[in-house]
Write a structure and sequence with these properties.
With 263 residues, the protein is α/β, with parallel strands linked by helices. It contains 8 helices and 7 strands, in the order βαβαβαβαβαβαααβ. Strand 5, helix 5 and strand 6 form a beta-alpha-beta unit.
Amino acid sequence: MSAQLSGKVALVTGSTSGIGLGVAEGLAAAGAHVVLNGFGEWQPAAERVRAAGAAHGVRVGYHGADLSKVAEVEALLAHAQAEFGRVDVLVNNAGIQHVAPVEAFPVERWDAVLAINLSAAFHTTRLVLPGMRARNWGRILNVASVHGLVASAKKAAYVAAKHGLLGLTKVTALETARTGVTCNALCPGWVLTPLVQKQVDARAAGDGVDVEAAREALLSEKQPSAAFVTPGQLAALALFLCSDAASEVRGVAWNMDGGWTAQ
């Protein structure tokens, strides 16, 4: 699939680390210019993405929008439009997590998880769709989760948001079904991202075990393969969904979960 996205422009939210960075690198390697977004140090991520696309001379931009704020989402899309002229591939990856029982779930954390994991994807989608329709080509990829398909205790906001993201994916796919725009969702199981590493560290501390033992325990409970999905594997799936071969893959929730949902 080398250079299949040559000249296209991709916006990947939550792309300074983890899944988002892996997907951004994959898109750049396929020739797409990339706009990164996320918190923390972004220059190392930009260098990695630039290196991945060096053979195609890709450009890499960055905007640090806080996706919990509608005005900043709009500023992010305005930046992409001003700097790159359009957005051809939108990857809604940004996400946060909070773990607590429903009756003890802090209201402000519920609001924050829903804002970043679900509402931000709605806002980016509504803003890119007019241009994609006008060009009759676009790819919208929503990074949901296995938790968009099944639930886990103490993750009410995350599970609700990811289930909602799959609903948004299906509606967007239906509304663009007779166009060159597609919308699909990626549903990974455990991926060793910074978000998951925090859960591993908390488990290690709570159980009084080392980090490696905590990782093994986390995997064994849910993921039959006992192996983490990698950002590179998800990037390869994203590239397939961006390809002409996937032009009739519409509204799909594609799980890559080591057998989690097969149980």
